[in-house]
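Hi there, hope your week has been kind to you so far. Do you reckon you could talk me through the fold, stretch by stretch? I've dropped the whole record in just underneath, so have a look:
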Amino acid sequence: MRIGQGYDAHRFAPGRPLVLGGVTIDHPLGLEAHSDGDVVIHALCDALLGAAGLRDIGYHFPDSSNEFKGIDSRKLLVRVMALLLNTGWVLGNADITVVAQAPKLKPYIELMCHNLATDMNADCGSVNVKATTTEGMGFAGRAEGIACYAVVLLTRST
């Protein structure tokens, strides 16, 4: 078994959709990024890659490459899972915490779990997404952006 941890954060920006866990969220601001800015998937990819000893998301999908400009991060997650499978790893489970003062994410959590499980070819029970605020503290608490933490367990494929 291998454990990986991932983190990502992006600031809010006008004129962009807010995408988290592959779900477009109803909010007036999106996240500034080279890709779609999906901090949930970016943190998850870093956790998966880290557990497998395969560096990080920036190494595999650099923001200096036009190939990844505006890309749907779900496509990156599918590619990360293919890398894991090719090196003999499968997902045991993933636990994800989104840190956002706003918007409220409860209505979107189930669909996020479904999207992530689908893209990782995993059972929905193996993917847990939860959301929290920081009670007004820090950049997330001031509603300047959103952060996400992810922890995964990988096991050897049989």
